[in-house]
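Hello Y.,

Per our agreement to keep a running log of every chain we model this quarter, I'm adding this entry. I've kept the format consistent with earlier entries: sequence first, then predicted structure.
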Amino acid sequence: MQTPLFDNGFEAPQQLIEPNDGGDVRLYPHIIDQGSADHFLAELTDTIKWEQRAITVYGKRHLQPRLIAWHGDPGIRYRYSGDTLIAEQWTPALLALRALCERECGVRFNSVLLNRYRDGQDAMGWHADNEIELGDKPVIASISLGEMRRFDLRHRKSREKRSARLPHGSLLVMAGETQVYWEHQIARSRKVVDERINLTFRHIAQ
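Predicted structure for the entry above:
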């Protein structure tokens, strides 16, 4: 695999939510250069074992409207919406992207959830990453590759909404009490026709 070229040198992040607003969400729009982002997109598309799994929503089982994969340290498990994922081993591409996220966030990640959106009809509904194994104030680093999609945030109490577009090769970091006060989603869009892969690096408590 080629050496990745990370292009975050002098670009200040966009602060989507300030810490005094009950969260901390930062977007680095171009942290990975175009060539490396293209390489990672192709590598993950071809080498990851993608699955469409069922989850429980309001007591009923539904196929998720996207493909997923779960990788991490040996024995790491992740349970959400009635489904338990057992981590596959790290690949060279995932290790390179994890190193970038750890450097930027200053924390260690032991797992990553990958979501593959095949077109604009694949989506992720409103939710918070607040599972107990993630801890009280999880740091979640989210890499986007491929088609640009809109990322929405919604405050749990005030219902205030904020949105940002996540470019190819971008990094979104959610930290502090974001998962306590805010929900997020990737909505369906008829305008989107190409694929996007999203990687959310996280630390699962053992």
